[in-house]
Design a protein that fits this description.
Elements (H helix, E strand, L loop, with lengths): L3 E12 L2 E12 L3 E5 L6 H8 L7 E6 L8 H7 E4 L11 H11 L6 H10 L15 H13 L5 E5 L7 H15 L4 E6 L2 H4 L4 E6 L2 E6 L1 H5 L5 E8 L1 H9 L4 E7 L2 E6 L4 H14 L3 E8 L3 H12 L1
Parallel strand pairs: 3-7, 3-8, 5-6, 6-7
Antiparallel strand pairs: 1-2, 1-4, 8-9, 10-12, 10-13, 11-12
Length: about 300
């Protein structure tokens, strides 16, 4: 029996003239946390909606726990939990009532003990009588996860579940996912946050409907063709101009307050000395200047640049 919980084989989906998913193929193993990583418009939500059977692929094969999510949709709903970008909680129902509602529409009998365990895990027990409309963003996300899991699915599909929540709530949400992963649940998450990819056992980097890389995060980082020099300097605009003029720098990207200059392999340390001197001559104040291993962001930008 296959150890794949999810299989996509040359899957395509088009909306009018737009190719949302362009021949995507990968497997997700049972019991793993898999990340589909990419910006808005990459095709992540379309892929998840096809996995749920809410959209039909134009071509290719999709299997979820060995079943076709469109033609065997009823069977899929019993074994799959789906957390959409716009998960609909009912604001005029309490936490308890929301979970009860989702349990009942999945045909779950005797869900009360399961509901109590989920509320305990998510630290929502003392708020169980509070209306959903009165919850914070982080609490709403945890309640939505509880509703997704109340029917004890084998596979959970999460479409950008941490978008719009504060950093503390994001960390707490990931702690909960790790707890459920330890119970053997397969977790498939779509997210635009490359830092969240590091928490996944494997990831697929997706852009404009194509998978650009598929592997463990560390293995993907290791494919980066060159070295990165990180520069934190002020004013940043002046630093960007100086760094970009260095003969060894292939390109420079901005990441918040940081600049990442990409160089050929083995050129990092010599470039640090050159860039430091050039910034000093230009009167730019340097906070930090160092060679770094490539991040997933660096690899993603490099792959997108190559594709273009």
């Amino acid at each position: 029996m296959s150890d794949a919980a999810i299989t996509l084989d040359h899957v395509k989906k088009r909306f009018g003239q737009t190719e949302a998913v362009r021949g995507v193929s990968f497997d997700v193993r049972k019991g793993e946390m898999f990340g589909l990583i990419g910006p808005d418009g990459a095709g992540k939500t379309t892929t998840i909606r096809m996995l749920c059977g809410l959209l039909r692929a134009d071509s290719g094969v999709i299997k979820v726990l060995g079943k076709d999510p469109v033609t065997e949709h009823h069977a899929i709903t019993r074994t799959v939990g789906y957390f959409s970008q716009k998960f609909s909680l009912y604001g005029d129902l309490t936490i308890d009532e929301n979970i009860a509602f989702f349990a009942e529409i999945h045909g779950v009998k005797g869900y009360q003990a399961r509901r109590t365990r989920l509320l305990d895990m998510m630290q929502l027990t003392k708020f169980r009588d509070r209306l959903a409309e009165r919850l914070s963003g982080g609490m709403k996300q945890k309640l939505a996860l509880a509703c997704t899991l109340v029917h004890e699915p084998d596979v959970v599909l999460l479409d950008e579940p941490t978008t719009g929540v504060d950093p503390v709530s994001r960390r707490e949400f990931w702690r909960l996912l790790s707890d459920f992963l330890s119970q053997g649940i397969t977790i498939f998450m779509a997210t635009p946050y490359l830092d969240e990819a590091e928490r996944c056992s494997r990831v697929a980097l997706m852009s404009e409907g194509l998978v650009l890389a598929l592997d463990q995060p560390s293995a993907i980082r290791a494919t980066f063709p060159g070295e990165i020099v990180e520069v934190i300097a002020d004013p940043q605009e002046a630093a960007l101009a100086v760094v970009g003029q260095d003969a060894g720098v292939r390109d420079v990207q901005t990441f918040g307050e940081r600049l990442h200059a990409r160089l050929e392999q083995g050129q990092g340390e010599p470039a640090v000395a050159r860039i430091s001197a050039a910034l000093q001559r230009a009167g730019v104040g340097v906070t930090s200047l160092r060679v770094l291993p490539a991040s997933l962001e660096d690899v993603f930008i490099d792959r997108v640049t190559q594709k273009r």
